[in-house]
C-alpha cells in the first residue's frame, strides 16, 4: 500500500479534453489495517506531488477520500474520520485544509450510506474532541469546530455526557455543558468572531444573547452574521435587524430581509421606500421595462414610476403606463413640466437637422449611400434591444444611424440584412471603409464588437477606415456622450430611451429623434471644436487636443510601414478641411 501516479483529464465547456495533469493518488483498496496517522501521512504525500493546482488537487482528493471511506476503515467511516481530526493538528499547515477535505468527504458519504452504530460512536468521540478543543488540548480553527459539530450532529446533551465522563475520570469540577459552551461563545464574541458565534448559538439552540449582540455585530459591519443569528432568534429580532439596516441606510439589505421573512406588514413604508429606491436606480439606467416588471402591478409603485418617467422627460412612457394601468391625474402635471423639460435637454432643431430618413429598402439604401459618400464628416451610432436575462446572448443590432450636417439616415439593419444582405454589405463597405469620410463615434468599440457579433457574415463590419472615437479625445469627461454635449454645447442629452425596444416597428417619433440626435451631436461637437481651434482657441482644458492623433484605422492585415506613414500624412493634411460643411 502506498501512492501511485495517476493522470487527471480536465475538460473544457464543450466536454473536450483541455489538458492532462498528473497527481499522486492512493491505492486505498483496503483500509482495514490502516491507522488514521498513516492515512493522513499518505494524504499529505499525495497532496505534495503532482502538477495539479491546489483547487484541482482538493477536488480530486476529496473524491478519493470519499471512495476510500467505502473500503472498510476501522472501526467505521465516521469513527475513522473523527480520529483523523484528533491527530490532524500535528500536520501543521495542512491541518485546516485536510480537515475541510475529509469532513466534506464524510458529509457526502453519510448522505448516501450512514450506519447508526458507527455514527453513534463517532458522535461520542466528536463531543470529547469538542471539549478538548475548548480546553486547549487540541488546536483546530473555529470554522472547523462548527463543521465538526454539524457533521457529527453533536448537541448539548452529547457534550454534557462527555463532560460528565471527564468529571468522573479526571475529578474535574462539575460544570454544565451549556455554561461551558456559552463561555466559549463569549470568547469568540470578544475576539469578534461573530459568524462562528452566531453559528454555535444556532447549533446549540442558545437564545440568551439579546439586541445588544445584534447591535454589536452591525457596528462591526458583520451583517451576514447578524442576519443568521436574527433568523434563528425569530421575528422580533428580525424586525430589530431591519430597523438597524434602515438606520444605517442599507435599504437593499432591509428590503431583502423584509421580503425573505414576510415582514411587509410590519414595515410597509420601509418596503415601499426600498422598492422605490430600486426603481429609481433602474430608471437612471433607462431600464424602464425591467422597472415596470419589478412593480408587480403595485399601484403605488407604478405611480412612482410614472413620476420618474415624467422627471426624465419620457412622455411616451408616461402615456403608456397611465393607459396600461388606468392611472389618472397625471395629465396636468405632465403639461406643466413639459416646458421645463424642453429646456433641460438638447433637441434636434438646435442642431439644424432638417431630415430624419428611415432606410429599409434597396432604393433608400442606395440613395443614402450616395449622399453619405459625398460627405467629409459623419456621425455613427447603433442601437439594439436590451436583454435582461442573465447569461443570455445579446440581441442583434437593430438600427445604425449615420448623420451628416443636416440629415440623419437610420438604417433598419434587421430588415435590410434579411432582404438584401449583399447590397447592404456593399453599401456599408463603401461608407465604413472609405478613407475620404471621417467617421465619428462615441465608445464605438462596443458598437464594433456588437455589429461583428450580430452580422458576422458581412464583410463591411470587419474593416473601418478613418474612424475617430470621441471618447478617446475627451477622456476626462464624465456622463458619457450626454456629459460631453453638456460640457461642449452647454446642454446634455435625454438618455431615457436608450434601453427601449429598438426592434419595435415602426419606431416611435421620440425613438427616432433620440437615435438621430446621438449621431448628429457628434458632428456638431466636432465642428464646434474645429471652429474654435481656428479662431479664438479651444474651450478651457482642451487647447492641446490634436484630432489627428486620435484617428485610427482598423484593418484585417497591417499595411507596410511606408504606406502607413503616407496614410498618416494624408490624414493630417485632410483634417483641417473637415470643419467645413459637408
Compile the SSE list and pairings.
Elements: E1 3-11, E2 17-26, H1 36-48, H2 54-68, H3 77-87, H4 95-112, H5 116-134, H6 142-151, H7 156-170, H8 177-190, H9 194-203, H10 211-219, H11 223-233, H12 235-247, H13 251-260, H14 268-284, H15 288-295, H16 299-311, H17 315-325, H18 331-344, E3 355-359, H19 362-373, E4 377-384, E5 397-403, E6 407-412, H20 413-419, H21 421-432, E7 438-441, H22 444-454, E8 464-469, H23 470-473, H24 480-489, H25 509-534, E9 551-554, H26 561-575
Parallel strand pairs: 3-6, 4-7, 7-8
Antiparallel strand pairs: 1-2, 4-5, 5-6, 8-9
Helix pairs in contact: 1-3, 2-4, 3-4, 3-5, 4-6, 5-7, 6-9, 8-9, 9-11, 10-11, 10-12, 11-12, 12-13, 13-14, 14-15, 14-16, 16-17, 19-21, 20-21, 24-25
Describe the protein's architecture and organization.
- GO terms for molecular function: 3'-5' exonuclease activity; nucleic acid binding.
- Residues 567-582 have a biased composition (Basic and acidic residues).
- This is 3'-5' exonuclease domain-containing protein.
- Pfam families: DNA_pol_A_exo1.
- This protein has a seven-stranded mixed sheet, with helices on both faces. Strands 1-2 form a two-stranded antiparallel ribbon.
- It has helices at 36-48, 54-68, 77-87, 95-112, 116-134, 142-151, 156-170, 177-190, 194-203, 211-219, 223-233, 235-247, 251-260, 268-284, 288-295, 299-311, 315-325, 331-344, 362-373, 413-419, 421-432, 444-454, 470-473, 480-489, 509-534, 561-575; strands spanning 3-11, 17-26, 355-359, 377-384, 397-403, 407-412, 438-441, 464-469, 551-554.
- With 582 residues, it is α/β, with parallel strands linked by helices.
- A hairpin with a 5-residue loop joins strand 1 and strand 2.
- It is elongated and about 95 Å long.
- It starts with a strand and ends in a 7-residue tail after the last helix.
- The protein is built from 26 helices and nine strands.
Amino acid at each position: 500500500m502506498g501512492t501511485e501516479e495517476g493522470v487527471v483529464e480536465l475538460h473544457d465547456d464543450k466536454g473536450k479534453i483541455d489538458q492532462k495533469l498528473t497527481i499522486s493518488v492512493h491505492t486505498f483498496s483496503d483500509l482495514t489495517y490502516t491507522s488514521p496517522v498513516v492515512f493522513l501521512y499518505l494524504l499529505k504525500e499525495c497532496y505534495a506531488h503532482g502538477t495539479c493546482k491546489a483547487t484541482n488537487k482538493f477536488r480530486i482528493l476529496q473524491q478519493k477520500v470519499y471512495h476510500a471511506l467505502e473500503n472498510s476503515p476501522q472501526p467505521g467511516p465516521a469513527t475513522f474520520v473523527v480520529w483523523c481530526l484528533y491527530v490532524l493538528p500535528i500536520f501543521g499547515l495542512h491541518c485546516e485544509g485536510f480537515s475541510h477535505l475529509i469532513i466534506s468527504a464524510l458529509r457526502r458519504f453519510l448522505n448516501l450510506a450512514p450506519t447508526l452504530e458507527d455514527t453513534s460512536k463517532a458522535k461520542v468521540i466528536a463531543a470529547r474532541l469538542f471539549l478538548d478543543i475548548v480546553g486547549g488540548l487540541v488546536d483546530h480553527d473555529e470554522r472547523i469546530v462548527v463543521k465538526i459539530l454539524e457533521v457529527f450532529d453533536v448537541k448539548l446533551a452529547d457534550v454534557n455526557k462527555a463532560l460528565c465522563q471527564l468529571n468522573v475520570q479526571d475529578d474535574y469540577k462539575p460544570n454544565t455543558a451549556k455554561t461551558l459552551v456559552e463561555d466559549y461563545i463569549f470568547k469568540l464574541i470578544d475576539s469578534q468572531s461573530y459568524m462562528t458565534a452566531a453559528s454555535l448559538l444556532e447549533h446549540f439552540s442558545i437564545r440568551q444573547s439579546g439586541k445588544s449582540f445584534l447591535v454589536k455585530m452591525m457596528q462591526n459591519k458583520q451583517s451576514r452574521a447578524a442576519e443568521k443569528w436574527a433568523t434563528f432568534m425569530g421575528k422580533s429580532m428580525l424586525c430589530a435587524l431591519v430597523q438597524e439596516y434602515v438606520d444605517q441606510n442599507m435599504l437593499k439589505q432591509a428590503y431583502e430581509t423584509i421580503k425573505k421573512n414576510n415582514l411587509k406588514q410590519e414595515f410597509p413604508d420601509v418596503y415601499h421606500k426600498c422598492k422605490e429606491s430600486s426603481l429609481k436606480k433602474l430608471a437612471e439606467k433607462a431600464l424602464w421595462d425591467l422597472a415596470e416588471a419589478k412593480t408587480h402591478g403595485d399601484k403605488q409603485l407604478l405611480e412612482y414610476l410614472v413620476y420618474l418617467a415624467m422627471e426624465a422627460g419620457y412622455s411616451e412612457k408616461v402615456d403608456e403606463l397611465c393607459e396600461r394601468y388606468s392611472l389618472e391625474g397625471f395629465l396636468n402635471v405632465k403639461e406643466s413640466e413639459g416646458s421645463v423639460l424642453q429646456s433641460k435637454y438638447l433637441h434636434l432643431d438646435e442642431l439644424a437637422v432638417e431630415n430624419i430618413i428611415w432606410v429599409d429598402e434597396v432604393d433608400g439604401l442606395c440613395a443614402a449611400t450616395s449622399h453619405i459618400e459625398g460627405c467629409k464628416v459623419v456621425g455613427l451610432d447603433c442601437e439594439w434591444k436590451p436583454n435582461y436575462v442573465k447569461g443570455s446572448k445579446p440581441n442583434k443590432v437593430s438600427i445604425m444611424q449615420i448623420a451628416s450636417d443636416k440629415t440623419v439616415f437610420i438604417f433598419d439593419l434587421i430588415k435590410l440584412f434579411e432582404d438584401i444582405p449583399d447590397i447592404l454589405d456593399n453599401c456599408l463597405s463603401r461608407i465604413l471603409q472609405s478613407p475620404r469620410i471621417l467617421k465619428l463615434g462615441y465608445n464605438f468599440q462596443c458598437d464594433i464588437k456588437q455589429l461583428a457579433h450580430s452580422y458576422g457574415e458581412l464583410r463591411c463590419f470587419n474593416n473601418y477606415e478613418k474612424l475617430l472615437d470621441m471618447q478617446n479625445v475627451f477622456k476626462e469627461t464624465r456622463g458619457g456622450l450626454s456629459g460631453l454635449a453638456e460640457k461642449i454645447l452647454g446642454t446634455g442629452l435625454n438618455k431615457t430611451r436608450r434601453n427601449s425596444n429598438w426592434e419595435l416597428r415602426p419606431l416611435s417619433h421620440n425613438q427616432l429623434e433620440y437615435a438621430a440626435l446621438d449621431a448628429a451631436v457628434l458632428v456638431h461637437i466636432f465642428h464646434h471644436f474645429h471652429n474654435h481651434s481656428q479662431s479664438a482657441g479651444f474651450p478651457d482644458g482642451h487647447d492641446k487636443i490634436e484630432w489627428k492623433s486620435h484617428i485610427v484605422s482598423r484593418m484585417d492585415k497591417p499595411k507596410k510601414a511606408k504606406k502607413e506613414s503616407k496614410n498618416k500624412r494624408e490624414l493630417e493634411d485632410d483634417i483641417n478641411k473637415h470643419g467645413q460643411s459637408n
